[in-house]
Amino acid sequence: xxxxxxxxxxxxxxxxxxxxxxxxxxxxxxxxxxxxxxxxxxxxxxxxxxxxxxxxxxxxxxxxxxxxxxxxxxxxxxxxxxxxxxxxxxxxxxxxxxxxxxxxxxxxxxxxxxxxx
Length: 117
Fold this sequence. Notes:
It is a single chain. By secondary structure, the chain is mainly β. It contains 1 helix and 4 strands, in the order H-E-E-E-E. Strands 3-2-1-4 form a 4-stranded mixed β-sheet, with no helix packed on it. The two termini are 19 Å apart.
C-alpha cells in the first residue's frame, strides 16, 4: 500500500481470501488479474496468483526495519515476491521473498510491467 499502507499482512487485507489466489482457494491454477480486492493503491494481485520478479538482487536483510530497502548492486540471484496459486498463506505475505537465477521459468512465476506517466 505504499504511503497509503494500513499495515496489512497481505497486499490489501489481513484476510488472504479477499486479496489472493493461493493453495487454499485457487483450484490449482492462476486466475485473471483483478478478480480479487485491490490494495490501498488500487493494485491487484500483489499477494498470490503468481510470484513476481523484482529488479533487486538477493541479499541478506539486517535486523532493523527499512522501507523499500536497496538490494545488492549485483549478484547471482534475483528476488521474486508475493506467492502463487500453488503456495501456502505464509508465502503470500508481502514481506516474504525468494531468490533464484534470473533464467528461472515456471507457471507460478511472472512479472509486472511498470511505466512512469
